[in-house]
């Protein structure tokens, strides 16, 4: 067992990265930034200017804003100014009402909101909001992570400035992980220290239930549960895993006013790291302790991969969270460390290169691909099969294999990211 000081640092890292969120985290982060600026201003702003990095724009353009029946940034910004409370963090809009929505629509119609791409930043996650009224102005900047407020200014006076020259803010207190550390923590930490991870199942499986109450997104989860689909997939553990995971994504991306437990700033990653593991554990009749450890392994693996990939990237988050869920499922199948590592390598051999083209209802399709691969990778691993270092980007070392994946996602796919955004903003040509 790892020493208590190390376990405490890892626990703190999980609690920092696995948090509740309502709606897609990118527009919610913009709403949060707006709400904090409005609070600093002290009154309802007459004008709101928003400057965003390309990745924030990409992930906020086509996604439903919870409880509004609308998509995109303008209504998120308007509601952030009208009813947003920064103390709620990524649940900033949970107090939304029909009256607030109507007021937000008027706000948009009066052209009080300007949203632009910030061209002169290399940061993937950057949000700058300036709110102006007769009484003065206030500016707030979020950078590095979705709730990380690094700068506050009011009427020319700097109140907070934690910006790091040349890029994102680094949290030097975060422990840097490797796969062995992740596995040992998940499988040996005292159960009472990691029991909190069960909240991820409560949140994210509840989101799957919510999807059944309406028509959200593309109804992928519902579709898999219908007779035609059952005739193709059967009513199997495999189909149940995909249905429960896709359903939660359907509800979240379709604008359901329901919180999910996110991972590393992404609700979809949180869902993908949680629901496949939870469903498999229930269907396989694993013990509660096994479920707790499998969920911990899944979420912490995703956090580990994101440490080198970055909060936002051109690589779809379902790749990261799918790797996590494959590890969790492998553990539930009785897999040891070596088998878990094989699952990681099998995932990397398959899903590398899946692009992120923004948060949107069709994310459920990508999540389903990731989850399907997660199950196949776990099964292959348990059969003693693993993609070898002679194949593609997989290395003998699991940690090197992960770094190969993240270097492609964080560096080599940068041009892809630019092209995706250009296509998204110039459709119809």
Percent helix, as a range, is 55-70%
Gross CATH architecture of the largest domain = Orthogonal Bundle
Spatial ordering of strands, largest sheet: 5-2-6-7-8-9
Mean pLDDT: 92
Instruction: Report the structural category.
Output: alpha+beta
Strand content: 5-15%
Q: If you consult CATH, what is the topology of the largest domain?
A: 2-methylcitrate dehydratase PrpD
- The DSSP helix count reads 18
The dominant shape is globular
First CA to last CA: what distance? 59 Å
Q: Can you tell me about this structure?
A:
The protein is of the alpha+beta class and 429 residues long. The chain folds into 2 domains: 20-161, 60s Ribosomal Protein L30, Chain: A; 179-425, 2-methylcitrate dehydratase PrpD. Helix content is 55%, strand content 11%. It is built from 18 helices and 10 strands. The strands form 3 sheets. The chain has a 6-stranded mixed sheet. β8 (149-154) and β9 form a beta hairpin. The model is unreliable at 166-170 (pLDDT under 50).
